[in-house]
Fold this protein.
Amino acid sequence: MSNIISGKVLSKEIREEVKVQVEGLKEKFNKVPHLVVILVGDDPASLSYVTAKERACLRAGMKSTLIRKDDSITEEALLALIHELNEDPDVHGILVQLPVPKHIDDNKVINAIKKEKDVDGFHPLNVAAVHLGQEGILPATPKGIMTMLKSTNTEIKGKQALVIGRSNIVGKPAAMLLLKEHATVTIAHSRTTNMKELALKADIIVAAVGRANMVTADMVKEGAIIIDVGVNRVDGKLVGDVDFDAVKEKASFITPVPGGVGPMTIASLLQNTVECFLMIEDK
Ligand code: NAP
């Protein structure tokens, strides 16, 4: 029977810490971190994500602005808006909610955001920093994953870690952060042929695929730590990538969905906004 790593509880603690930090920043700099979120189009899932981010910022005492643009906006106009925000001294963090419409090159959007205002940690220079083990803004979801792992007080050094999924926003950076903590890391993906064999050897499994029940109990070693990043809707219910009820009987620690990695992503975004603020204001 495993311990549940509650993203709800842990993220609340982080949000409280950030709130206290923001009060201190207000006193010292006479201003608070300001996050600007750009939402292009009216995808309901994206809208609910940005609303949650905005609410969390405001609750932490930060300033938050949502700029909504019609999905007919040109790439040129979107890039011009980002450049304007890059130069605005009142703005400390810029986040463009992805995906953007197909006629806009998301790489151009990511590259346009000034590195110091890149709260998502997607800019190539921030990505490079993670790979080189240098200081940089970490992408929020992998950062949240590492916070959850560390909350278990389990030593990561020397452990076998399996990351399932190799996306730029979750799988690859999560693998790099585990490597930084001296885990022996394997990255699996859709072309991996021996998933069960790899999974059974893993002390830590990070599942970031987007397929319900992809990690089943017969794939999990007794006592493994399971981080479930997946978000899937099955019969109207939100579930992760892991067969939670069965796997929790074998794992030592497991994250639930909902209430796991999701809230940690938002808490990490708040931490990143503070970090960007300090890079800009505390020179
Ligand atoms: P993504 O870009 O679609 O990447 C999915 C990865 O899973 C790919 O690397 C893909 O392999 C791999 N994959 C697909 N089918 C597979 C299979 N049958 N076996 C093994 N690997 C397989 O997704 P993402 O953005 O990383 O997100 C992954 C999941 O996490 C989604 O459910 C997403 O909603 C969720 N998510 C949650 C949060 C949060 O805060 N809770 C944040 C971000 C994402 P290939 O590279 O070979 O195609």
